């Protein structure tokens, strides 16, 4: 049995208001199981190779940073539960390979995503120049309803910056509904804020006024459990 459901016997010598005479002064406390999530959402992280997609995901989900990570092969994912707008949200975050040769695999994950994080590296012009190509992928494979967030990563490398904030803002202003922020996975700057803003934007579009009895009985999934598309192999785990 799950240890969360165990009834803990509290050894006691009386004095507790909850003590039961039948237990000879011992009281029973039931440890409550965690409240189930109200929503399950998928977020996908895309962008060119080496921009820090994995690093952003790992910073957000585990608060870790890997200096010498291996390049992602195919896709990987992590789970994180957050609370926003009074709701508990289970996020499944898909980290995709930046290498073009994996596009046929990674594109299968766009469709179910409620949020898309498009990343470039502020120190590498080519990763910014690649953005129109990634926008084409989004147009082709993602849901029109998906919320979009552009992240300029590696803000800790300000002295090596090539892509100015103004240049990025000009790009963003031409695309409706695209949000923008700069962050550093390494320094843990603005990472959580960027992800939570994206989730908040997703929630803002959802019908949150669901009768509480529906919420209490089951996990309300506004989209299918984010399964691995059947035609694909399971996500390949990467190590650091
Ligand atoms: N200075 C700095 N380095 C970073 C940052 N984020 C990631 N890196 C480094 O950039 C390199 C690539 O990071 P990854 O997270 O693997 O990049 P990725 O976009 O997932 O790469 P692919 O899987 O190849 O597409 C690694 O050496 C990281 O340590 C950051 O915020 N600042």
UniProtKB/TrEMBL annotation:
GO MF term set: G protein activity; GTP binding; metal ion binding
PROSITE patterns: ARF (PS51417), RAB (PS51419), RAS (PS51421), RHO (PS51420)
Keywords noted in UniProt: Autophagy, Cytoplasmic vesicle, Endosome, Golgi apparatus, GTP-binding, Hydrolase, Lipoprotein, Lysosome, Magnesium, Membrane, Metal-binding, Nucleotide-binding, Phosphoprotein, Prenylation, Protein transport, Transport
InterPro entries per record: P-loop_NTPase, Rab12, Small_GTP-bd, Small_GTPase, Small_GTPase_Rab
Catalytically driven reaction(s): GTP + H2O = GDP + phosphate + H(+)
Family from the record: Belongs to the small GTPase superfamily. Rab family.
Name under which the protein is recorded: Ras-related protein Rab-12
